[in-house]
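Researcher: Structure for this, please.
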Amino acid sequence: MEHDALDAGEARYELVISVDARRSGQYSDADKPRMRERIYRVLETAFAQAGVGRDAVHMEDRGDGVLVSVPGRIAVTRLLGLWMVEVHENLREENRSLLVPLGLRVAMHVGPVRHDSRGISGRAVDLTCRLADSSVARQLLDREQADLVLAVSDSLYVDAVFAGGKFIEPARFSRARLALKEGEVSAWFHLPGRPAPGIAPIAPQEPGPTPSGASAGPSAGSDTAPAGAAQRATDDRGARNARGDEDDEDANASVRYTAQGDLSVHRDNVYQQPVHIGRVTDSGNGKG
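Model: Predicted structure, token format:
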């Protein structure tokens, strides 16, 4: 790339792409060079097929993946659309002869990027790498037994994906909330060639397990109401039930009981004769 007019203190808005290989740590030292060769062949062939010149792309090796930045003169939609289609097809072709298919996690985001003699840096780069390494991307790839998963930032989805375009189908993306080191962010996930993936059941918080007794917080999901709002609605409903503002059927639907032994619940009952509530155990005849 031409960066004669740039220095380390000057940033330009560029598309950042992070590509990581699935379970790269399971490759032996002898297999890793072949894995890396396949990754570069898939990506570089796709750039050529999408009409993006190799000299217009900055690529950094990451051992088990590649970090890419593309200048603003290249349409982002071309990378989101045609380039991703070619990456998917090239990857499928590579995997035809492999007993263990190569899986790739690809993430994209547009933001300010700084170049120096050693590569690129900036928050845009950090966010892109976090999305590619997120638990949602990892779990989608494994659960769906897919070759490829694409994650895009919320801003990139709004600016470029939402409107659609050639090979870009916004209805096939699913939204998730991620708790990253920098804070909570939204991202959108897509499995090329497949419907929008289900995310809510498989998206734990990024930092790790929730401490005992603490609330798990909102899980990743699609365009539904946040978990906090749903919990508030449940709490409000419970309060109304306590005041008698709702009918019995609705109130019973919102009540939950936890019992270690026998449980008997009676509500607004009128008994005309003596009634025993509970279980009677007769040790003499063995009935219980």
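Researcher: Any notable elements?
Model: The chain is about 30% helix and 20% strand. Confidence is low (pLDDT under 50) at residues 1-6, 201-261, 283-288.
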